[in-house]
Amino acid sequence: MRIVGVDVHRCHLPLVRPFRTSFGSEYVKDVLLIEVRTADGFVGWGECVASPQPDYSYEFNDAVVLVLRDHLVPRVMGIDLRPEDVAQLLAPVRGHPMARGALELAILDAYLRSTGESLASYLGSVRSEVDCGVSVGIPDDDSLDTLMAEVAVYVDEGYRRIKLKIQPGWDVAPVRAVREQWPDMPLQVDANQAYDRHHLEHLAKLDDFGLLLIEQPFAEDDLFGHRLIAERMATPVCLDESVLSAANVEALIDYGACDIVNIKAGRVGGYLEAKAIHDLCLGLGVPVWCGGMLETGVGRAANIALASLAGFTLPGDTSASSRFFARDVTEPFVLHDGRITVPTGPGIGVTPIPQMLAELTVARTHLA
Ligand code: OSB
Ligand code: MG
């Protein structure tokens, strides 16, 4: 297969409510969608999980466009390739996993459309629907009542697991309140690196609430801190930002810093590396789940395909499109009994609806 054209569509999707984490608030999803065209006339779509600001990661959308234009796209243009070759072709470029993952997904989608296979089947799917969790931000007004009302909506909608964002000053009290209201709901927390090891004893109080896991309490490079907290707490420690590749996750597990892995394909450079991490963890008996980055239907479709692999034994941040967006670029993903059906069509199984894409696009950049 040869790639003969690449375009980046920058879209703005208003959020149905602000999404606040320990590193800031988002009101609009500002997203890059990558469109590739092949010599045979197939089109593929990928989504980049970078934000407009370098907050969750050092990558950010303007930089993604530049690294795609000047360093990544030129390495895949016009040559005969298969999706499995893309990582090798891009390997001389250091870093920028979100940019390379988005390009790889678009190429993978185009390739699978040409063969007629779904991404789920290609990755090794074992189920036709996935259990869905939802990530609940810190309320903009710092109010427990606001949090409880939001969680109640998700519980009524049927979500199978609740994840609360925490930060210093917003941890034990919200977790206690939600746990008291919903004693049997699978519950977990995500700190997005907001603590350091001086907070160990404070965080250990969360052991009282039967959490599935605590996600990324410390800085992404504080591997020793994560090992200390894994030793100190009964609650399993899950890493997100620290997980960069299969090689590094193997080291994190061996070192004792990581009990559970949040797999985000964009953060690790694409769905093939994500599958490699899944395969490694399955072999080691380490549970994994599929993280989210407020994806549009393009990235959500691919995440749901990934989450249908055997090792994804915990519900993911694979919520319905309506959790974030009133209008999406694709047909929305909907929840049935707390689950989403895995797309079966060729490639990612969904395509941006031209009219929605036109309405939501704020800029289009022709890269090649
Ligand atoms: O840490 O998991 C995270 C969203 C943006 C940046 C980081 C994270 C998140 C989420 C997932 O919590 C939200 C979702 O897509 O459902
Ligand atoms: Mg996280």
Automatic annotation (TrEMBL):
<dbReference type="GO" id="GO:0016854">
    <property type="term" value="F:racemase and epimerase activity"/>
</dbReference>
<keyword id="KW-0479">Metal-binding</keyword>
<feature type="domain" description="Mandelate racemase/muconate lactonizing enzyme C-terminal">
    <location>
        <begin position="145"/>
        <end position="236"/>
    </location>
</feature>
<dbReference type="InterPro" id="IPR013342">
    <property type="entry name" value="Mandelate_racemase_C"/>
</dbReference>
<protein>
    <recommendedName>
        <fullName>o-succinylbenzoate synthase</fullName>
        <ecNumber>4.2.1.113</ecNumber>
    </recommendedName>
</protein>
<dbReference type="Pfam" id="PF02746">
    <property type="entry name" value="MR_MLE_N"/>
</dbReference>
<dbReference type="InterPro" id="IPR010197">
    <property type="entry name" value="OSBS/NAAAR"/>
</dbReference>
<keyword id="KW-0456">Lyase</keyword>
<dbReference type="InterPro" id="IPR029017">
    <property type="entry name" value="Enolase-like_N"/>
</dbReference>
<dbReference type="GO" id="GO:0009234">
    <property type="term" value="P:menaquinone biosynthetic process"/>
</dbReference>
<dbReference type="InterPro" id="IPR013341">
    <property type="entry name" value="Mandelate_racemase_N_dom"/>
</dbReference>
<dbReference type="GO" id="GO:0046872">
    <property type="term" value="F:metal ion binding"/>
</dbReference>
<dbReference type="InterPro" id="IPR029065">
    <property type="entry name" value="Enolase_C-like"/>
</dbReference>
<dbReference type="InterPro" id="IPR036849">
    <property type="entry name" value="Enolase-like_C_sf"/>
</dbReference>
<dbReference type="Pfam" id="PF13378">
    <property type="entry name" value="MR_MLE_C"/>
</dbReference>
<dbReference type="GO" id="GO:0043748">
    <property type="term" value="F:O-succinylbenzoate synthase activity"/>
</dbReference>
<keyword id="KW-0460">Magnesium</keyword>
